[in-house]
Amino acid sequence: MTFLNELEQRIGQQHVLTGQSMQQYLEDWRGRYTGTAVAVARPASTEEVALVVRLCAEHRVPIVPQGGNTGLCGGATPDNSATALVLSLERLNKIRSVDIDNDTMVVEAGCILQNVQQAARDHQRLFPLSLAAEGSCTIGGNLATNAGGTQVLRYGNARDLTLGLEVVTAQGEILHGLHGLRKDNTGYDLRNLFIGSEGTLGIITAATIKLYPQPVASCTALLALNTIEDAVQVLALARQGLAASLTGFELIAGNCLQAVLHCYPDQRMPFQGPAEKAAWYALLELSDSESLEHARERFETVIGQALEQELVQDAVIAETIAQSKALWHLRESIPLAEKAYGKSIKHDVSISVSVMSQFVHETDKALQEAFPGLENVTFGHLGDGNLHYNVARGTAFTEEELLKRQDEIYTLVHDSVHRFHGSISAEHGVGQLKRQLLPRYKDPVALSLMKQIKTALDPLGIMNPGKVLPD
């Protein structure tokens, strides 16, 4: 019996896709990576995932786990050998339980993030992970890359929001770790080992995630700024005045919002005059547990201080939920506008806030000296030091010409990140995009330990080969 015949027997013929029916699973969201596969398997339970993995181990078939296929580093795309099985977790989409007293929820890996957020709201709770792709990305993918998003400043990354995991190992065994304990020191922290491993050590099939009380009130403001230095000082004011109530602080270059307005004319800039085309913007959000009046008073005090110190050109505070959503919609539309303009060279980097402005100025200058006419598309989560320092073709290059210079641009930017003691991957993962860069920037002892862990947990090397670890 062939591998495909056995696979169909284990999970049903209709859930084993071949030929044209699997095309949507073979290309990444950005359109940068396209691969081939022997088939796409769509199991419906953890037990079926384990059956598939055991079959793949028996036949030495590589496995490429895939969630919502919204990744930006090619981590869920197979190579061109046509030997791998894409294992889609989209049918594992149940919310298994909600424990209000413990403030936890058990969700399967294929649950869409937006659906998890809504399920929390249905129980008067908050699940704070929030991403631009939340309408299509899945919890499994969020955990596989240790996703961040816009509220890391207050709540942390996906890893910080997770208490327990259920994982299918490379041998097809099931690790039952879905406890909701906040303290468990019985040995090594296997949960954190699998989170962020991008399916190279095992397949996350379910997770116990943390819930929080819903805020009584929230306030959102968009500030027009002259410089990144001003943004850093406003962040310091906001941290001092709002403390843990500050849930979001986004930095946005002016050309990012101009691109959004060009691509989506139904959206509007809330400013008039010079602030309509400011060099930089900051998007702030406060969540308050007391009242709207209390939240508004604290918010206005901080923004008033920023205005008095001339750190801000102008400020708009949302008066309604609809206005707040419109401000966030501007921010969340930036990746879509980028895509509409064509392929760009993306950098998801982490830099200490204290040297963020220096990094941007020096790297901008070096790029323009090396490649005159390129356009920087810079935005990100200033509150936690995560910058999406992207490079577009501008008016000087075609898309093809830009991509030919990709390796040179990566080296220039990542060398600058390394010089400032930053990280070349903050929240998007490594995937196949950055894996060969790790020997240049990763501590050699750390890289050696990572390879030893991979060998120990996946001795056959079938779990998402060609991702994360360099050759």
TrEMBL record:
GO terms for molecular function: catalytic activity; FAD binding. It comes from the Bacteria. Residues 33-214 form the FAD-binding PCMH-type domain. Keywords: FAD, Flavoprotein. Its cofactor is FAD. GO terms for biological process: respiratory electron transport chain. InterPro entries: FAD-bd_oxidored_4_C, FAD-bd_PCMH, FAD-bd_PCMH-like_sf, FAD-bd_PCMH_sub1, FAD-bd_PCMH_sub2, FAD-linked_Oxase-like_C, FAD-oxidored/transferase_4, Oxid_FAD_bind_N. Belongs to the FAD-binding oxidoreductase/transferase type 4 family. This is Oxidoreductase. It comes from Alcaligenes pakistanensis.
